[in-house]
Amino acid sequence: MGAAEQLIQTSLLGEAIDAGPALVFVADDLMRYVAVNEAACKTLGYTRDELLAMRVTDVVADGEAPGQYYEMVAQGFRHGLATLTCRDGRTVRFAYRAERTTVGGLELFVSVGFAEG
Q1: Which of 15, 31, 89, 109 is the most exposed place for a label (fewest CB within 10 A)?
Q2: Which of 58, 57, 30, 61 is nearest to 46 (CA)?
């Protein structure tokens, strides 16, 4: 695949993930969101800028979230259910798979899943 084709592929994949039905959250090892997709924003009722100013513990309603996050950092992956708090105070269940990845030389954690109910 040539450079132009790879750029097109990357661009199309990025657009598909941003506009797709799955919620996607990318966070660093300090639980700061560094990227979120449009589905995550719409589901939770926050703008992208608002979510990018937040940490995982600002959104995940479960009091065990910090321990579970650091367990995921140590193991490199985690899957399960989490309760997410929406901007209007509602909560949604989030079935997810999270895994360590490297993007641009940075170690990050990508969580992908679907909101239930």
Answers
A1: 89
A2: 58
